[in-house]
Amino acid sequence: MDKSGIEVWLEGALDHCALCACPAAAPLPPPKKRKGNTMPRRGHHEEPSKPHPNIAPHAQALDLSDAPTRRAVRDWAREVEPTALLLEPHGSGTRSRGARAASLTSPTDVVPDPVSSHTTFSAMSRSVVSFPSPSASSARTAKSGRSKSPVKTLADLAVTSKLPILRSLDDGMPEDVQDLFEKLHVISCGENLIPAAVADRFRRSHVPLRAWQIDPDTPPNIEALEREIDVVQDISARANTLAGEGHSEPSWNSEVHSPILRLALEGLDQVRHFNITTTTLCPSLVPIAERSGEALQSKLVDYALHLVPARHTPLAEAIDHFVAAQAPGMRTVAPTMYDPVRRRPQAVAIETKVVNSASDPLVQLTVWAQATLARFRQLIEISHGGEQTMPVLTLPLVEVRGHEWHLWFSQDAAQTFELYGPLMIGSTETVLNTFKLVQSLRVLGEWVDTDFKSWIESAFALP
Fold first, then answer.
1. 163 forms bridges with which residues in the sheet?
2. 3-class state of residue 318 by DSSP
3. Which among 205, 210, 344, 445 is least surrounded, fewest beta carbons within 10 Å?
4. Domain that holds residue 299
5. 358-384 pLDDT per residue, tens
6. 403-425 as b/e, with b when 16 or more CB fall inside 10 Å?
């Protein structure tokens, strides 16, 4: 009589496991007693061996260290065959032997075996412990989030509804930042930069000074200015050490960029810099590729200057009311749900890179600025009865690469997104240029505390 499929499986399993020296499992129940058979039989009063918690019942019945006779295998096979059939994956227990044999060659077998007669053991292992196929896992990953369109250069942003356009400084500035640009341009040129009372501090660093760089007016607090120059010298020396040793961007951020921002904003109580290196944009504010509908990759920036309204002021209360009325994922006045800045309007984004970085910091700044201005448009519409009653303002963007700091002005025009610049506002390579950078950042902070604050109050329809 032909052997059944289950007998083939059992014989192959026994031979294969014996060759592989598999660990022994619980003993197989003995066959019915026959004449001349001296195999011992367990009494009815004996407790059955406890099953192993991690092995299926049909596998635990195999005693691989002391294999039973073939007749015992056949008798036991008749008892466990229904269970084995129920464990057959992807079908019923009535499949033909050919169908079962075909399934053994499936690439999803957990335990591959080059010997065809032993692949049934692999199939049974698969039926007990199943793993998702790579394709299924990928499908789930794809469903978990929206498709992202990679962004590496400004050209990649051309697929959005607002094409980025670079404008030279010779093209002129948007009217709302003209005064800010002129102040920064004077500092960039170095005109009247160094107070005469401390000019000798810079001459000691072997930097030649011209007469037009010296400010004849005496500052009100010479001691504070002397301390500031001490910090400037320390920051410049540290920056040159990091550049010479090839340090990473996080090292520059912690040892150079954070200290210089802290120094520049000293005394401006309602303006703070925040390290937002790991902060992401709100998904609904990320620019969308116009044709494909894909969201562009959410680019991160390193720092931002934020307005910090004083508590219990009309502006602070208006912001609290606005945030509380928004949907859960948009309870913020900033373009991000990062909690420290949700109630603090963002004015200036700053992206830092080391000299040999392959990525373009202006790409990250542009994506961030577009998201910020999109949030401001929503703010205007909500606060002004559903109408865009005022234009969004022009936002400064700061690009840092190694020692050098450059400023751009971003304007959300009707059909394009225009970037004016770059204007070099300082460098940490020399003490003189580091001092220039501190003065430039201080002017930016003062703009946040005045012009930007005034615009935000108008956006909230405050008198």
1. 416
2. helix
3. 210
4. 144-459
5. 778 888 899 999 999 999 999 999 998
6. bbbbbbbbbbeeeebbbbbbbbb
